[in-house]
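Model it.
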Amino acid sequence: MDLVSRISELFSESAHLKLECMDALAGPIADGALLMVDCLKADGKILACGNGGSAADAQHFSAELLNRFEKERPGLAGLALTTDSSTLTSIANDYDFEQIFSKQVRALGRAGDVLLAISTSGNSKNVIAAIHAAHECSLTVVALTGRDGGAIGELMTAKDVHICVPAQSTARIQEVHLLTLHCLCDAIDCLLLGVD
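Modeled.
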């Protein structure tokens, strides 16, 4: 096996998928950024959730809101629902794992907030439950999915934004998700601070 060739092929696959998705995803990403900026301007917050690599993406995104992305600015209200081990384990133990995000959305979410729901398959049960809770509490949802959008794609309302990466590989979907999150951060900063 030639590892250098294999690695080069993975770089190529990732780059090609990003370029293939550019036209289809640019509009929904812009729509998601506008929703988030409207939320933040109204003193709302963005709650983010996902499992595994998507949990890491939720934390990555909230860190770049709270701290900064590429421009100096005051912190923005972002919260990853994936980070409090005591909360996560108590909900999973006392109720079930499916409710680890939805109970937090009901407790912390307010009308006008945004839920960033991340699931590469679009079928993560606890993310689906969080979306149901968000809708019950009048939050808007920005969903990042892959493949055909799964069950999450069917839950989106006219007010929500669905950003679906049309690929099968979890790794490639996650790579586009990370680029999408950086695009959201950049757009939020541009809309709030202007373009240099």
